Amino acid sequence: MKPATCSERRRPRQPGGFTLLEMLVAITLLAVMAVIGWRALDSLTRSRERLTDHDARLDALKVLYGQLQADCEHLANPTLLQASPVEIGQNRLLLVRDRRDEGQPPTWQALSYQLDGNTLVRVAAPPVDSRAGLQSALLALRQGGSNTAQVRRV
């Protein structure tokens, strides 16, 4: 056997694997990174849900404003109606819309926008061609609608 040299004697033996302490540190770091990643993913998921809900509400408002704009653009002529086509009450807006075609006799439709809890409801009475019919339609809408009215939640 060959005698050991001085440099070989001073070298400590290299272990073949990781120590228990190194493994515990690595597992702890991986656990911390997993928790941070999970929280980030959870935050992204919640943000996406809020944005989806917000987009749905904005779409509903666009539809509502479009319908309200169309109703206001076709308000009845106060001179022909002999009254104001708009009536504002508590939690309710009544409108009289002109539904006639060009060159035809007047036809009116009574509309009501009213709050039902947190929901806005549009109630449209059938079109009528007389002031008496319009007055009865408006009265029915003031009292909560009629059986022939078209109800739409917006």
Unreliable spans: none
> Quick check: average pLDDT?
84
Number of strands: 5
Strand order of the largest sheet: 1-2-3-4-5
The arrangement of helices and strands along the chain is HHHEEEEHE
The number of helical runs is 4
What does this structure look like?
The chain has 154 residues and is of the alpha+beta class. The chain has two domains: 20-73; 75-153, no CATH class. The protein is 49% helix and 19% strand. The chain has helices spanning 6-10, 20-73, 78-81, 131-142; strands spanning 86-89, 92-98, 108-116, 119-124, 150-153. The protein has a five-stranded antiparallel sheet with strand order 1-2-3-4-5, with helices on one face. It starts with 5 loop residues before the first helix and ends with a strand.
What is the compact description of this entry?
This protein is of the alpha+beta class.
Keywords:
single chain; 154 residues; alpha+beta; 4 helices; 5 strands; rod-shaped
Write the layout of secondary structure elements.
Blueprint: H1 6-10, H2 20-73, H3 78-81, E1 86-89, E2 92-98, E3 108-116, E4 119-124, H4 131-142, E5 150-153
Antiparallel strand pairs: 1-2, 2-3, 3-4, 4-5
